[in-house]
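As agreed, record passed on underneath.
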Amino acid sequence: MSVVDGRASVLTQDDFEELARHAIRTNEALRLEFVNGKLGVKAVPDGDHGRIIAWLTQICIQSRQGLWLFPDQGLRIETYRKGNARPDGALAPIDTFVGQGEWASTDGVLMVVEVTSGDADTDGRDRVEKPRAYAESDIPVYLLIDRDTCEVKVHSQPDGERYEVVVTVPFGKCVALPDPVGIEVDTEPLKDWVH
């Protein structure tokens, strides 16, 4: 963001990427995103958060050979506002991000995953803004593991503005991650990793 004649100008994607690079160099615990035209800071994941991502990674690679759940891969999202998100996981073929920088294209991404961290921005960010941004980016599946409500929400069938189908199940039930993911997940273990 720059100041012109005493007024702050709009943060551009290039400005954001420079700011994010600087933030990472000065504070590794800081995770910045630029979603829905707003700068956001994600909470640093706790141990249970990391265990959930490890659990889901194991399920994905055992179920679908050649895929990997990339933790914290920066993605360029949103066609309208040009945003940047760092989902907790991005499921894609193993070579999808080869040769790309910190902020990669969403081409080839089958699913993005967010695990709530209990911070003040979770409601707006993970439950409202990110589903819209991921749908605008035409990512086929958005999986929200909501530790606050003890539910899993599977968003699918993006129409360019939103996901047309959202399936919600409580922790402990099985849920299908629809094609192109095509994996059935028993969410029982998630009960052990809530705060």
In short: The longest helix spans residues 47-63. The chain has one domain: 45-193.
